[in-house]
Amino acid sequence: MSRRFGVLALGVLGVAVLTGCPPTYPKCDSDEQCKSHNEVCVNGQCQECATDANCKAGFVCQANKCTPKPECTTDQNCPAGSTCASGKCTPKACTADGDCGPGARCKNNQCVPNTCTSNDDCGTGESCQNGVCAKAAATDTCNWNPIHFAFNESALTPEARTQLNELSDCIKKGNFKKITLEGNADERGTEEYNLQLSNRRAASVRKYLVDLGVAPAKLDTVGYGENRPINEGHTEEAWAANRRVEFRR
């Protein structure tokens, strides 16, 4: 009887030796042994993750820990004009557009994407073309000749209206930040009266251009009275030349 019991005990011990006991956490042989801790088995140890697939959206596996996914790993992951630093895209410092590389421009000493919704988003000499700031087409083809007026008049002549009709189209197509309409008068009359007359002439040109669709914000007016003659003579020809509105861009 004792011999049979000894043989049975020896058999149980042999099975235990052959099968072994499950490892104690955090040691493991399979993912199943780590499941209660929401972990996976990595090289005999329960870890938070083995691959990115073990992490929730927006996280990646680094050193077997789930960490927030970096915004970038190289400059190529960042928008134009930005550089990758410590996993984040940061604007490059700049002093000129050439410092920013393709697809970006320098604004307030920082590189920004070279995108736009209107000409106002672009720099001088540029226009918004297909959502990108690009060098504006030449605008020197506009007729910037002065608008002339009859004696003591601020109303536009038919010739002036024809010229402004063409000029308004050119202004609307071009990239003009601001245009100042400078009114002038001839020497006849008092200085105060001529100053008021020159302001009325500038306002008359502005109103006509706005009525034709030119943005009001693009047009400023100023009157110089008789103080800026382009012809110093005292003849009808000189006076006619001085009764004018000039365009300053």
CATH topology of the largest domain: 60s Ribosomal Protein L30, Chain: A
**Average of the residue pLDDT scores:** 86
Please bin the fraction of helical residues.
10-25%
Looking at the overall shape, the CATH architecture of the largest domain is: 2-Layer Sandwich
**Would you tell me the structural class of the helices and strands?**
alpha+beta
Note poorly predicted spans: 12-18
The CATH homologous superfamily of the largest domain is termed OmpA-like domain
| CA distance, first residue to last residue | 119 Å
Please tally the helical runs, counting DSSP H or I stretches of 4 or more residues. Answer: 4
Question: How big is the Rg?
Answer: 40 Å
Number of domains: 3
Strand percentage: 15-25%
Spatial strand order of the main sheet: 11-14-12-13
Order of helices and strands: HEEEEEEEEEEEHEHEHE
The number of E-state strands comes to 14
C-alpha geometry:
rod-shaped
